């Protein structure tokens, strides 16, 4: 019993120290980790296609080069075709925001005036102080988040380093992926290697299913929103649709942002409420398709990542490690989710859960 406890304590101390060193390294080196994190993500996402080419007889180096070339070409097409349109609409939208604010103020001010007239002076003063207090807190929170993302993503400023280092890291990792996996497998403790491999396979299924499926969902929603809003004739439809689709990797954020932004623009742009209803209907119909058909088909129910868990992971990662933390938040959430489910299964099968409680002897009271 003592040896087992000593062995368990040593394991806990080792892994606790390893996690502490890892978190400290992420915190200290966050500014320079962005190209490497992106390179690892690209290699991980393109590895299945690279494996498929290798099974067809293509050398690993050539297959890795082909995958990386396709990635660079896709990025170049996006930069040439999409970025100019998005940049132009963003500029126009920024210039039109003051007009939208004035229009909404002129529209809502009479109704707010009638509502405020029904309040007493004390109620009005309390409402004004409360709104000002919460508005100040919300603004400060947004500034803190933006500042944290900027500090954590300082590597973005060095744009040329990002463009040069990320493809190199992705190429070498993609080329040596099989050898790296075999090397890590050789380091596993032989006694627990089967259990560790089983959990790593579960992590890979969860992570791959979510990341590749969610990227497909974001792409489909972005294209659908852009096309539908453009056909309706909504101003800045491409920008709103693109941002709504890209933000869909955060549950409920993309659809909420798109619905609010599109509804405000439609209220200002169109005279009647028919077009506004059509714009709102686009987002409601898209969310119905996404929740009932697209996501179950592309992501499925087996990944085990609850929306609340994803939101918490993204907020925690951004708060602790900035932009890099948000990039690694989903992988860390997938790993923790698999390990927690494994720990729960072990607990439910252990004597701590299955052992029956001993009946307590009641003392005999004297007559």
What's the structural blueprint in terms of helices and strands?
Elements: H1 2-28, H2 34-55, H3 60-117, H4 121-152, H5 159-175, H6 177-186, H7 193-232, H8 237-246, H9 253-269, H10 274-298, H11 307-348, H12 351-354
Notes on the structure:
The structure is a single chain. The protein is mainly α. Helices cover 83% and strands 0% of the residues. It has helices at 2-28, 34-55, 60-117, 121-152, 159-175, 177-186, 193-232, 237-246, 253-269, 274-298, 307-348, 351-354.
Gross geometry: globular
Residue share in β-strands: under 5%
Helix content: over 70%
**Mean pLDDT metric:** 77
Annotation field: number of helices: 12
Radius of gyration: 27 Å
Give a quick rundown of the structure.
83% of the residues lie in helices and 0% in strands. By secondary structure, it is mainly alpha-helical.
Key structural traits:
mainly alpha; 12 helices; single chain; 0% strand; 367 residues; globular
